[in-house]
Amino acid sequence: MRLLRGVRDHGPADAWIGAGFVRNAVWDALHGYIDPTPLADVDVLYFAEDCLDAEADDTWERRLREACPGALWSVRNQARMHLRNGDRAYRDCADALRHWAEVCTAVAVRLRGDALELLAPLGVDDLLNLRVRPTERFRTKPEIYRERLAAKNWLTHWPNLQIELL
Predict the structure, then answer these.
(1) What stretches of 86-156 show up as alpha helix (H) in DSSP?
(2) Domains located in the chain, CATH noted
C-alpha cells in the first residue's frame, strides 16, 4: 500500500503499478507464502502522448525514490514503448498491457482515492490459476518468451506454476 500511495501522490497522472508487483503477490498468496517475494523492481506505467521524452520517466523515478525510498522504480510512458517493441502505437495503458510478454503479467493496479483499481485487459484467469503463457503478441516472438522464462526461473520459487512452452 505504501508504494501504491506513493505512485498515487507522487507519480505521473493516472499511473499504475504492474507486472511482478501484482503477479508475485498473487502467486505468493496462492502458494501459501507468508513473506512477500522481493521485487526486482516496481514497474510503473502511465500514458502521456504529449511527453514522449525518456527523460520524463527518469524524473518520475527520482521523485518516487525520494517519496518512497527502498524500491527500485522503473517508470515507463506506454505512449512511446511501442517504438522499442516494434509494435503499432498503443492507444492507452490497457492496450500496452496486451503487448506484454505473459498473460499473467499483463495486470496492473492503482489507488483511485482510497479504492484499489485493477487493470487486466486479458483477464485474471491465468494469474489466479497459476498459468504462464505468452500473450498473442509474444506468440510471434517465441525466442524472447523462452529467454524470459529461463531468466525468471519462476518454477524454483513457485513450483505449482503451469508454464506453456513454445
Answers:
(1) 93-97, 125-128, 136-139, 142-152
(2) 2-129 (3.30.460.10)
